[in-house]
């Protein structure tokens, strides 16, 4: 009977360790937080070219991550890309109406992300508004093409 | 020529029969409400296939995480991207290595033992004696082992991942000097709980079912001689390894194939 108690304890500890491991994987490895998903608000931005921007990419402001790309879809009215941004709710009502959004690249070959920079307009963007002033991703081929055609015209 | 085709046909029929037997066997032993004694039998098997497999699984996980970090670092540092080390270690562990390697180790450590144990019970007519006294060997012998394997392997896989990520941390951060914040930060930014941890767990559940099923069925279905037991034990390890690796490809294609 003594031995079976030890065994039960061992199995119990084993299962407990498994559950704790799963919690570790959730919190530490995949960075789950217990904040309610309602803590964000949405903005839209239309880009002529998003390059290789993907959903879940970072949205930064002065280099600080303030949100994520929620969705990317084709806007069939203008035939450009409509990007839905999910931003921290503490920024709601604080971004001026002339905020600009640019698609930037981390390092030379890194992932692409969106950088926001505020303007000076006293009116602010609310949930669901669209950022008008956007800057598309830099596509290397286009850059080289421009460079070559400039050289030729000189 | 016709004889060859006949042999092929016979093999095909035998294979189908074996699959059918294995299916009925799985259904009969896994479905049903366990008695109080059944819980206790399950507990004993959990101790044997789970707790006693911890050592080999955790040590392997630690070394695999360390090696991943070492190899990843030498590759990534050329591109100045060693900050992505945590992401690389965590994703390769969670998505592929932890479920697959834990299942392979489990097949070698616990699966072969299950086959040999049940096989010896059959060879010494213990299973027949149980039937004689009105105890169903499927419920008494096979079901606890099946369920114990099904529960234990996912837990072992979690342990493997955790220890592997920690091993990557030891080598990457403590030894090679990757910045600690970017190791965890990039990991957290790129690992999705449902998409990566969850899918890894689904893989692990599938492998657990397949490996334990093969192990107990091979034990139950073998020819009851010493040679039969040795063959069945070998077959358990070979079949479950092949099944795990093949299924892993299929599952990866389904889960991550559409990922761009």
UniProtKB/TrEMBL annotation, chain A:
Gene name in the database record: mlaD
Pfam family, one: MlaD
Protein's name according to its UniProt entry: Outer membrane lipid asymmetry maintenance protein MlaD
Mce/MlaD domain boundaries: 42-118
GO MF terms held by the record: phospholipid binding; phospholipid transporter activity
Residues spanning the signal sequence: none
Top-level taxon in the UniProt lineage: Bacteria
From TrEMBL, chain B:
Function as written in the Swiss-Prot or TrEMBL entry: Part of the ABC transporter complex MlaFEDB, which is involved in a phospholipid transport pathway that maintains lipid asymmetry in the outer membrane by retrograde trafficking of phospholipids from the outer membrane to the inner membrane. Probably responsible for the translocation of the substrate across the membrane.
Complex formation: The complex is composed of two ATP-binding proteins (MlaF), two transmembrane proteins (MlaE), two cytoplasmic solute-binding proteins (MlaB) and six periplasmic solute-binding proteins (MlaD).
Family as reported in the entry's similarity comment: Belongs to the MlaE permease family.
Chain segments annotated as transmembrane: 48-73, 85-107, 146-169, 205-224, 236-259
The organism of origin for this protein: Halomonas heilongjiangensis
Superkingdom in the source lineage: Bacteria
Subcellular location: Cell inner membrane
Keyword Transmembrane helix found: yes
Keywords: Cell inner membrane, Cell membrane, Membrane, Transmembrane, Transmembrane helix, Transport
Cellular component GO terms, alphabetical: ATP-binding cassette (ABC) transporter complex
Coiled-coil intervals, chain numbering: none
Protein name: Intermembrane phospholipid transport system permease protein MlaE
Location (main, coarse): membrane
Protein's membrane topology: Multi-pass membrane protein
GO molecular function: phospholipid transporter activity
